Amino acid sequence: MLNIALFGPPGAGKGTQSEFLIKKYNLFYISTGELLRKELAAGTKLGMQAKNIIEQGGLVSDEIIVQIIEKTIKTNSDANGFLFDGFPRTYIQAYILEGLMIKLNSSLDALISIEVSEEESVKRLLHRAKTSGRSDDNEKVIRNRLKEYREKTLPVLNFYKEKGNYIAVNGMQPIPKVTEDIEQIINDLLSKKLLNIVMFGHPGSGRGSLGKALAEKYKLEFVATGTMLDEEIKKGSKTGKKIRKLYESGQLVPDEIVIPLIERKIKNSKNVRGFIFKGFPRTLVQSYILDGLLKKYDSYIAKIFEIKVDTLELIRRLDKRSKTDAAMPYDSSTEKIVKRLQEHEDKTVPVIEKYKETHDVTVIDGTPPFNEVLENISKEIEASFKNLK
């Protein structure tokens, strides 16, 4: 997901550049004024609250504005991201947006400021007044608007300068050159984003094979906890010896061992486009750990898939697998297979339900032939990340 705040004084050309960004990167346009008008027209609860305030001559509170923005983001989850215009307008609103992004498990990637001198703004707006017939575009009113922009916006710009995601663009250049510079900024941001995918599904759903195939197709790192644990055992490392003892005694490997291995994998993987996680997170606790771990490396889960297969088909597949070299310990009897499927229901399904509250979990039918399922997942990935090739 790509989230951008576009700034610039009146006359900087934000409207022109907004149109370009929305079309080019499939972003949803968020203008607080426009959203508020829609709420008023629809007569929603928030709209009526705002209407009462406006009729009494007051300003619509940040509390109402942020609820409208949150609702808009949640109801437009198919967008590649959001373009904020006119928000945050104050230093306080900058904090509000940060908190909202955290709640939605996202972040503002950059504040792009189209910078134009005051005299150039005045010149452009006076020219616009001649063609638009706007009575408020006279020099006195224009200079007051610019003064208000400077006074309110400077603290916001400083907020993002301190965060390190403020990017200035020379708005004095011809429009095509400004567009070109902004496009380069966005492409640079996208190139640094990791495409992190989590694959959910009952044992036998094919999530492991699908994950490996997707990793190869999109040049992602495949992260399977079982594989990493086996590698440690083969290396004969200190951790591997602990894992072997746990296996031999029939105990589960604790998170204290698993998490450092996953973090090492992330830390040591250089120049990767992202990660595909299979078999992790398996519990609610692990889901919080993964969110925190990715946040530590300034990343997040970009896409979640749940592979759905009928229970009888799962049992048939696992029974068939038990007769191959790929057999897992729990494949050895129907009783063990059922126990493992029930464990997934008890521990992992709640994780999926938790993610459905904060992410767009895509359910995929895992019943068709492997290549068909792979193609269906690929279409979903490429539809969500149009820059991915």
| CATH class label of the largest domain | Alpha Beta
Overall mean pLDDT stands at 89
State the major sheet: 5 strands, parallel
Strand content: 5-15%
Cα-atom Rg, whole angstroms? 26 Å
**In total, how many domains does the architecture comprise?**
2
Low-pLDDT ranges: none
Order of helices and strands: EHEHHHEHEHHEHEHEHHHEHEHHEH
The CATH superfamily of the largest domain turns out to be P-loop containing nucleotide triphosphate hydrolases
- Report strand order across the widest sheet: 2-3-1-4-5
Q: If helices are DSSP runs of H or I spanning 4 or more residues, what is the number of helices?
A: 16
Key traits:
Rossmann fold; 389 residues; 59% helix; 13% strand; 5-stranded parallel β-sheet; 2 domains; alpha/beta; single chain
Task: Give the helix/strand layout.
Layout (H helix, E strand, L loop, with lengths): L1 E6 L6 H12 L1 E5 H11 L2 H11 L6 H13 L6 E5 L5 H13 L6 E6 L2 H15 L6 H25 L2 E5 L4 H18 L4 E5 L5 H12 L2 E4 H11 L2 H11 L6 H14 L6 E4 L5 H13 L6 E6 L2 H11 L12 H25 L2 E5 L4 H15 L5
